[in-house]
Automatic annotation (TrEMBL):
Name of this chain's protein: Phosphohistidine phosphatase
Organism from which the protein derives: Microlunatus parietis
Record-listed E.C. numbers: 3.1.3.-
Binding residues annotated for substrate, in chain numbering: 65
Gene3D superfamilies tied to this protein: Phosphoglycerate mutase-like (3.40.50.1240)
UniProt GO molecular function: hydrolase activity
Length: 178
């Protein structure tokens, strides 16, 4: 049980973008979602809505596939108070992503970060350090595929997030139907 002096509980949703198309004559940054990715993006939105997650802030990579993942999540019912696109997420390693998390607004209790592999999976491992639900870790360690979504909780202010200050409460891979 928390007391009035405890910091608010933070929820950090870390998503790998949905499946993208390959074999196009475009720069990697500009690759769009595939048909499956478009369906899975909607499924992410349905999962968020169905489980009561309403991010105060969404921060997405500027890569087309990441931006489209959020757009499709909105089509699936997801809502957010503030949506930002940040080019520092594209090809970012976990240390750079921690710096981004530390700059989140303190009034944001739930944040969704949409990025890429290996940055997003490595950030989960860094922040949670194997703390949390064993079944979620087992699923995450087996594979962190496109549309993978890790749900972390922390009692720390965003500015104080460090390795091991969060715990993994769930890992899901929402999939859309054909």
């Amino acid at each position: 049980m928390t007391s009035p002096n405890d910091p608010p509980r933070r929820t950090l949703l870390l998503a790998r973008h949905a499946k993208s198309k390959w074999g196009l004559d475009v720069d990697d940054h500009d690759r769009p979602l595939s048909g499956r990715g478009r369906r899975d993006g909607v499924a992410i939105g349905e999962f968020l809505t169905g489980n009561g997650y309403k991010p105060d802030v969404v921060i997405s990579s500027t890569a087309t596939r990441a931006r489209q993942t959020w757009e499709r999540a909105v089509a699936g019912g997801a809502v957010a108070r503030d949506v930002r696109y940040d080019d520092r997420i594209y090809e970012a390693w976990s240390g750079a992503l921690v710096k981004l998390v530390r700059r989140l607004p303190e009034d944001a209790e739930t944040v969704l970060l949409i990025g890429h592999s290996p940055g997003i999976p490595d950030l989960v491992r860094l922040l949670a350090g194997r703390r949390g639900k064993k079944k979620a870790w087992t699923r995450l360690e087996a594979k962190f595929p496109t549309s993978g979504l890790a749900i972390l909780h922390s009692d720390h202010d965003w500015a104080d997030v460090d390795p091991g200050t969060a715990e993994l409460s769930d890992f899901v891979v929402p999939r859309g139907s054909d």
